[in-house]
Amino acid sequence: MSTKLDRITELAKEEPKRQFFSIAHLITPEALYAAFRSLRKEASAGVDGVTHEEYQQDAERKVQTLHQRLREGKYQAQPLRRVYIPKENGKQRPISIPALEDKIVQKAMVEVLNAIYEQDFLDCSYGFRPGRGQHQALDEVKRVICTRSTGWILELDITAYFDSIVREQLMEMIEKRVSDSSVLRLIRKWIQVGVIDQGQFLVSDKGTGQGQTISPLLANIYLHHVLDAWFEEVVKPRLRGEAHEIRFADDAILCFHYREDAEKVKNVLSKRFAKYGLTLHPEKTRLLEFGRYAEERAKRQGKKKPGTFDFLGLTHICARSRRGKFTVHVRTMPKRLRRSLTAVAK
Questions:
Q1: In the predicted model, what is the mean pLDDT of the chain?
Q2: Between helices 59-72 and 29-38, what is the axis angle to 10°?
Q3: pLDDT tens, residue by residue, 302-318
Q4: What is the pLDDT of residues 215-257, one digit of tens each?
Q5: What are the pLDDT digits (tens) for 51-69?
Q6: What average pLDDT does the segment 23-42 reach?
Q7: Residue 333 above 90 pLDDT?
Q8: What are the CA-CA distances from residue 194 to residues 2, 97, 171, 202, 283 (Å)?
Q9: Are 66 and 105 in contact (CB under 8 A)?
Q10: Which of 159, 154, 178, 151 is nearest to 18 (CA)?
Q11: Calpha distance 81→97 (Å, rounded)
Q12: Which of 250, 171, 164 is nearest to 204 (CA)?
């Protein structure tokens, strides 16, 4: 499996426009069993009620049976189980939990698709990618602001991102790289499967079902085309100064040298996103001056300090080191801090 994935990685890197028409055979019993072993043992059960511990009993035989159903076209994705978790603003975020065998197949599929898409994704993207995470994203934010010509930050906030993805446009993006009908059929099953919410079966014509094992990858593919590649290939060559993007899933900031560049991008971004069914939150998407010269400009304007911005749960603040050198300090966002303190008090 590893050798075959390595070969796919090589081909994807060598030919950025290559379509892969035969990759479903890589979902072997061994790949499915490895996927099962990698799942979180304490994760909540889906509508099937099957836990990791229960499936562990005679798991190899169950995986063989699952593989047989996949080969014969008899595999059916089960509806997602909808649960709600509290958000910082007091509202609730819907999470969709797949059945255990759906998690297994999706996990194995992610391993195969990562071999292709990791060659396409850009360095600005950090969320849900092998060997990348929040710490690297936060380090990059500090590097770009402290060492590059950054004077303006554009915070992006996409309203209900996972639930707003236009499925047909997502599938068109995937088909640029994957033409294997078996794989495409599986992805369509997962994104169209519907949810059980408080005993009711609900279906929608948009979204990928946040909480599914494959959803983060699909979300990255979508924003790679909608934002990352567009910003890198179309926008940046037309700007006067430097510009950088740092993105973790649907949490992103754009950094600019010049205000005019930042405002130009801000003005076209809503139209760009609307073309793909996405909406930028009008209050949380904002432009602010930030960087090594923001502090002195704030003083000239009669302000005590320049503005701050939030990224990955942290508030970023213009500051000075003990030696008086410009730096960026971070602190936990007030809402998240209050939530953590409340949890501890309980």
A1: 93
A2: 130
A3: 777 889 999 999 999 99
A4: 999 999 999 999 999 999 999 999 999 999 999 999 999 999 9
A5: 999 999 999 999 999 999 9
A6: 96
A7: no
A8: 33, 11, 17, 6, 31
A9: yes
A10: 178
A11: 5
A12: 164
Mark 192-226 as b/e (b = at least 16 C-beta within 10 Å). ebbbbbeeeeeeeeebbbbbbbbbbbbbbbbbbbb
Provide the pLDDT for residue 3. 87
For the record, the structure tokens of 15 come out as 């030919």
* Rg of the chain, C-alpha, whole Å: 22
The torsion angles phi and psi of 47, rounded to 5 degrees, stand at: -65, -20
What's 20's DSSP letter? B
With residue 261 as reference, give the H or E element that holds it: helix 259-274
Relative to beta strand 80-86, strand 195-197 is: parallel
What's the average model confidence in pLDDT over 130-159?
Answer: 96
The helix (H) or strand (E) run that includes residue 195 is strand 195-197
Sign of CA dihedral 191, 196, 197, 201: positive
**What span, in angstroms and rounded, lies between the C-alpha atoms of 299 and 84?**
45
Q: How many CB atoms lie within 10 A of CB 27?
A: 24
The structure tokens listed for 286 are: 């904002």
Helices (H) and strands (E) in the chain, counts: 14, 11
Confidence band for 336, pLDDT divided at 50, 70 and 90: low
The DSSP output letter for 123 is: T
Question: Phi and psi of 197, rounded to 5°?
Answer: -120, 110
Pairing mode of beta strands 152-157, 251-256? antiparallel
- Tell me the percentage of the chain whose pLDDT exceeds 70: 95
The pLDDT, as a whole number, for residue 301 is: 81
Determine if residue 272 is left, alpha or beta; phi over 0 gives left, psi from -120 to 50 gives alpha, anything else beta. Answer: alpha
What CA–CA distances, in Å, run from 296 to 83, 221, 223, 318, 327? 48, 41, 36, 11, 14
Q: Tell me if 314 sits within 8 A of 331, measured CB to CB.
A: yes
